[in-house]
Design goal:
The protein is mainly β. It has 2 domains: 124 residues, Jelly Rolls (Sandwich); 98 residues, Jelly Rolls. 0% of the residues lie in helices and 55% in strands. The strands form 4 sheets. The chain has a 7-stranded mixed sheet, with no helix packed on it. The protein has a 7-stranded antiparallel sheet with strand order 2-3-4-11-6-9-12, with no helix packed on it. A hairpin with a 4-residue loop joins strand 7 and strand 8.
Length: 238
C-alpha cells in the first residue's frame, strides 16, 4: 500500500527579507519543523522571489547537489570556479558542491523580480570535485507529457547529479492524464505544483502544494486546470 504526505502551500515556512520573499517546503534557516526536515534525500525546496537588482551575496556550499529552476526573469550566477552565467525560464542549473564552492546569485534585471525554485539533494558521493552545468531545454517538449530535466546519467536528457534521482517537468491541458513509473526500487516521488491544479493519486493539489508518495512503483495524475504545470522529483527514500 502506497504512503503519501501532503504539504499545502499555506503551511510552508516563509521569510520576507524585503529583497527576498521565500517559502520553504522543508526546514530551512529560521524555519524549523521537526516533521518537515526532508523527503528522502530531498533536503530543500525553496520557492524564491528576488527583487529587481538584488540577490544573494557570495556564500559557501559543500557536499550538496543544488538545482535551480527559473520560473520568471533572469538570474545571474557567479562562482569560485570562474563561471559567470545567466539562467532564465527553460534553463536548468546544477552545482555539485562537493569539497566546497562559493557562489552568488542576483536578479540581473532592475525592473522586474526573478522567481525560481532552489532545490538541494543529498549526494550519493561525498567530497567530489565541485562542478557546474546548465542547459536550455525546449519547453515545447513538456506539453502534455513529462520532460526529464535531471538524472544520474550524463548521457540522459537534462542535467546530471551525483544521486539516483530523476526530475521531470510537465505542462498539461485541462483533463489530460499521465502515468509516471518510479525509476528505481526504494525511490519515492515528491510532486510540486508550479501552476494550476492536479489530481494525483485521487487527491487534489493546487498551485504550490506538494505531495510525497512512496512504497509504490507508479503514480497517476490528471491536470484539473488549463496550462497546469508540475515538477516531479523521483528520489531515494534512504
Amino acid at each position: 500500500m502506497s504512503k503519501t504526505i501532503i504539504h499545502k502551500s499555506d503551511t510552508r515556512g516563509r521569510a520576507n527579507h524585503g529583497w527576498l520573499d521565500t517559502r520553504h517546503t522543508f526546514s530551512f534557516a529560521e524555519y524549523y519543523d521537526p516533521e518537515r526536515m526532508r523527503f528522502g534525500v530531498l533536503r530543500v525546496l525553496n520557492d524564491d522571489i528576488v527583487s529587481p537588482g538584488m540577490g544573494f551575496g557570495k556564500h559557501p556550499h559543500d557536499n550538496m547537489e543544488i538545482i535551480s529552476i527559473p520560473l520568471e526573469g533572469d538570474l545571474e550566477h557567479k562562482d569560485s570556479m570562474g563561471n559567470v552565467t545567466v539562467i532564465n525560464h527553460g534553463d536548468i542549473q546544477v552545482m555539485s558542491a562537493g569539497t566546497g564552492i562559493y557562489h552568488s546569485e542576483y536578479n540581473k534585471n532592475k525592473d522586474k523580480p526573478v522567481k525560481f525554485l532552489q532545490i538541494w539533494i543529498f549526494p550519493e558521493k561525498k567530497d567530489v570535485t565541485p562542478r557546474y552545468d546548465q542547459i536550455t531545454l525546449n519547453t515545447e517538449d513538456r506539453l502534455n507529457r513529462l520532460q526529464q530535466v535531471v538524472s544520474p546519467n550524463p548521457d540522459d536528457e537534462g542535467v546530471w547529479i551525483y544521486q539516483n534521482a530523476w526530475f521531470h517537468l510537465g505542462k498539461f491541458d485541462d483533463g489530460v492524464a499521465s502515468e509516471y513509473e518510479i525509476k528505481r526500487k526504494g525511490n519515492g516521488v515528491y510532486a510540486f505544483v508550479i501552476k494550476g491544479s492536479f489530481s494525483i493519486e485521487g487527491k487534489t493539489l493546487n498551485e504550490r502544494d506538494g505531495m510525497g508518495i512512496w512504497d509504490t512503483d507508479k503514480i497517476n495524475l490528471v491536470a484539473e486546470s488549463q496550462d497546469a504545470e508540475l515538477l516531479l522529483m523521483d528520489v531515494p527514500m534512504k
